[in-house]
């Protein structure tokens, strides 16, 4: 099953994201990839992967991905955050993480958790997402 995966990385985490995606390129090539602007560009420059790019995070890219999360159209988020640097768009980041919690979408915010999720993805442990897509409840339910 092809999954929709969002890849987001703060500036000081972009190299780490590129290295991570490169290491697991054979896993990611079977899925639909989405990313905020610069992160997506860097991934495409360093791999053979195709990435749908949204705007830069501070310019609304986090919110664009959040819109897909809110409608349960995203299956997995890898968001390598820089916890030691203040972000001007922190409210957007918190909103995206909150939406992941509301929709029950797995979200890794560091490389250790990202690796666990990608290894589970490679094993096929996300088959339960098919049921979510098949029986997606409406807003009124």
UniProtKB/TrEMBL annotation:
Entries under PROSITE patterns matching the protein: METHYLGLYOXAL_SYNTH, MGS
Stored InterPro entries: Methylgl_synth, Methylglyoxal_synth_AS, MGS-like_dom, MGS-like_dom_sf
Sites where the protein binds substrate: 10, 14, 36-39, 56-57, 89
Active site: 62 (proton donor/acceptor)
Keyword terms, alphabetized: Lyase
EC number: 4.2.3.3
GO CC terms, sorted: cytosol
UniProt keyword Lyase, yes or no: yes
Residue ranges constituting the MGS-like domain according to the UniProt record: 1-141
Domain of life: Bacteria
Gene Ontology biological process terms, A to Z: methylglyoxal biosynthetic process
Transmembrane annotation, as ranges: none
GO molecular function list: methylglyoxal synthase activity
Keyword Ribonucleoprotein on entry: no
Catalytic reaction equation(s): dihydroxyacetone phosphate = methylglyoxal + phosphate
Known function: Catalyzes the formation of methylglyoxal from dihydroxyacetone phosphate.
Annotated family: Belongs to the methylglyoxal synthase family.
Name of the protein described by the UniProt record: Methylglyoxal synthase
The species this protein was found in: Paenibacillus mucilaginosus 3016
Lineage summary: Bacteria, Bacillati, Bacillota, Bacilli, Bacillales
């Amino acid at each position: 099953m092809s999954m929709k995966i969002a890849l987001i990385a703060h500036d000081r985490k972009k190299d780490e994201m590129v290295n991570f995606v490169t290491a697991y390129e054979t896993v990611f090539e079977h899925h639909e990839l989405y990313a905020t602007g610069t992160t997506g560009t860097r991934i495409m420059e360093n791999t053979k992967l195709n990435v749908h790019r949204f705007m830069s995070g501070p310019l609304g890219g986090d919110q664009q991905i959040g819109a897909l999360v809110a409608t349960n159209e995203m299956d997995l988020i890898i968001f390598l955050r820089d916890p030691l640097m203040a972000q001007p768009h922190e409210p957007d980041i918190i909103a995206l993480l909150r939406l992941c919690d509301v929709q029950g979408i797995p979200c890794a915010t560091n490389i250790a958790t990202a690796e666990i999720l990608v290894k589970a993805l490679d094993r096929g442990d996300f088959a339960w997402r098919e049921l979510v897509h098949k029986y997606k409840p409406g807003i009124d339910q």
